[in-house]
Amino acid sequence: MFWFGRPPYLRWVAAATLVVGAAMIEFWPTDEAAYPFTSTAVEAGEPVRVEWRMLPAGTYPRVSLDGKVAGHAMPAGEPIAASDLQVPIDIPDGWWALALEAPFPLYPGAATRLVLGEGGDVPGIVIASGDGNSFGTPTALIAVPGEHASAVAMAASARQIVVLVAP
């Protein structure tokens, strides 16, 4: 009679071993470390508000937040990496910042020269670089001297401005 055969003890042992091994791997204690995440949305140049979350150790390199600000806009809940932070840019008193289209991505702190359509040029300092507009053109927040801010804004609105960067 077939139904009175020997039970499959070896298959039961193999299945039980597999289940016990999977449970051990799942519940094995792992080393955890606190990693920084943004607690609220942050704009470029603002101090980062941090929320610490526990993740397995070594998930990604830890960063130093001392004296750093956001290098670009970040949504809430975003993990903070070294590439997301920058040293704050010192802007001289009386300078104004304008968002301008740039021919290529600019790094914060870069010295620029803005050539206006009417032939003049104005010095500038890049405060932050943006992801670009809806057409994919890179943008940058550039500070200019206050006495030239209105001329730069008018040239930018007329699309008669060229951004130069020293190599």
What's a quick, concise take on this entry?
The chain is α+β, with helices and mostly antiparallel strands.
Write the layout of secondary structure elements.
Layout: H1 9-27, E1 32-38, E2 50-56, E3 69-70, E4 85-86, E5 95-101, E6 111-116, E7 121-129, E8 139-145, H2 146-157, E9 161-165
Antiparallel strand pairs: 1-2, 3-4, 5-8, 6-7, 6-9, 7-8
What does this structure look like?
The chain has about 170 residues and is an alpha+beta fold. It has two domains: about 30-85; about 95-165, Elongation Factor Tu (Ef-tu), domain 3 (Beta Barrel), CATH 2.40.30. About 20% of the residues lie in helices and about 30% in strands. The protein is built from two helices and nine strands; from the N terminus they run H-E-E-E-E-E-E-E-E-H-E. It has helices at about 10-25, 145-155; strands spanning about 30-40, 50-55, 70, 85, 95-100, 110-115, 120-130, 140-145, 160-165. A hairpin with a 4-residue loop joins strand 6 (about 110-115) and strand 7 (about 120-130). The longest helix is centred in the first third of the chain and has 19 residues, at about 10-25. The protein is elongated. It starts with 8 loop residues before the first helix and ends with a strand.
Q: What are the low-pLDDT stretches, counting only 5+ consecutive residues below 50?
A: none
Give the termini separation: 90 Å
**Spatial order of strands in the largest sheet:** 5-8-7-6-9
Report the C-alpha radius of gyration, rounded. Answer: 28 Å
Kindly estimate the percentage of residues that lie in beta strands according to DSSP.
Answer: 25-35%
- The number of helical segments is 2
Would you tell me which CATH topology of the largest domain applies? Elongation Factor Tu (Ef-tu), domain 3
What number of domains? Answer: 2
Based on the structure given, which CATH architecture of the largest domain is correct?
Beta Barrel
Helix content: 10-25%
Main sheet record? 5 strands, antiparallel
Q: Which structural class should the secondary elements be placed in?
A: alpha+beta
In CATH's first tier, which class of the largest domain applies? Mainly Beta
Please tell me the overall pLDDT. Answer: 85
Secondary-structure element string: HEEEEEEEEHE
In total, how many beta strands?
Answer: 9
Overall 3D geometry? elongated
